[in-house]
Amino acid sequence: MLVRLFDICFSLLGLIVCFPILIIIYLVGLFDTGSPVFRQERVGRNKKPFTLIKFRTMSVDTASVASHLASSTSITSVGAFLRKTKLDELPQLWNVLKGEMSLVGPRPGLFNQEELTTARDAQNVFSVRPGITGEAQVNDIDMSTPVKLAEVDAKMISELSLSNYFKFIMMTVTGKGSGDRVKPNI
What we know:
The protein is mainly alpha-helical.
């Protein structure tokens, strides 16, 4: 209950404070891809679908697959900067405010990531809201290792406290973790 209260307060504050940045990124994105906002159906709490919102970092014609399956050639120059600084995640504050996500929790996967969904189901990971960041993200564990990711997510859920909540947020804000990998150019 307290985590949800912090989620509401911080996401609302973040949207207000970052509003000028959101507008600037949106406008730059119009010139970069023509479609700066990316929407994608993801697996939410109790495996219910929700629409995740991010700033687009890949070209518009990129297939809707997990980042580690997408080619790095799909990432635009602006997108590379957004990914590196994690600014592409800012619109997800709206998902947090709506109650579809938390600031801290397991990153929401795609419905076509069956191995990840099965591994997370076995670990009861879907009992909580997915998050923008968490233990896996700050330790460079992404969706390319579904079983390991599910185990780390389950561990984080079982050990989540207010201090860990703030620790993962601070680690993310200060640049810990590299985000989801993409396939290198070959």
